[in-house]
Amino acid sequence: MILEELHPQGLRIAGLLRARGEKVAVADGATGGLIAASLLTVPGALDFFVGGGVVYSFRARDVLFALPRDAYKGMRGASADYAMLQARAIRDNFGAAWGLAESGSVGGSSHPSGAPAGQSVAAIAAPEGVTSTRVIEPGCDDRIANMAAFTRNALEAFEDALRAAGGH
C-alpha cells in the first residue's frame, strides 16, 4: 500500500518540522489527498500539520484559497505559477509556516486546462518567503501510478526544501 511506502518519509518530514517548531498546510490536487494522508500516518501529527484539502474543482479552489477569480488570470492548471499561488494561499489561509501544493493531470480523462496526462507540479511556500517547485514531465496515462508518483514527488520536494532551510 502506498501509505506504508510513504510513512518513513512522513516521519522524516515530521521530524524536520518538529525540530523547527513549524507546521504545514497542504493543498492536494491530482494526488487526491495522498500528500496529507502520508503526513497523517505519523502519530501526533497535530504537532506539525495544520490541515488543508483536496482541490479538485473550482468550488474547492475558491473555498480553500479565498482568492478572486482574476488571481488565476493567465494561469493554467498543472503549471508552476498555478501551484505556487495555491501553496502560498493554503499556507496563509491556514496560518502555517509552510504551504505545500500539488497541481497535476493524473490521466484517465482529459484535464480541464489541457495539461497532458502524467504532468504534475509540486510547489512549496516557505516561511522565509523562499519558494520552490518540482515538476514531473508528461508520462503515462495510468491514473493510480501517477497519483503515487505525484505524491512521492511532492513529499521529496518538501523534504528537500526543509533540509535546505536548515531543518537538520
Written overview of the protein:
By secondary structure, the chain is of the alpha/beta class. Helices cover 42% and strands 19% of the residues. The protein has a five-stranded mixed beta sheet. Strand 4 and strand 5 (131-136) form a beta hairpin.
**First and last CA, distance:** 29 Å
Order of helices and strands: HEHEHHEEEH
The main sheet comes to: 5 strands, mixed
Number of helices: 5
Share in helix: 40-55%
Radius of gyration: 15 Å
Mean pLDDT: 88
Going by helix content, strand content and strand pairing, the class is alpha/beta
The global form is globular
Number of strands: 5
Low-confidence stretches: none
Strand order of the largest sheet: 2-1-3-4-5
Proportion of residues in extended strands: 15-25%
Task: Offer a few descriptive terms.
alpha/beta, 168 residues, five-stranded mixed beta sheet
Put the structure in a nutshell.
This protein is an alpha/beta fold and 168 residues long.
Topology of this protein?
Layout: H1 2-20, E1 24-28, H2 34-40, E2 49-54, H3 58-65, H4 80-94, E3 98-105, E4 119-125, E5 131-136, H5 143-164
Parallel strand pairs: 1-2, 1-3
Antiparallel strand pairs: 3-4, 4-5
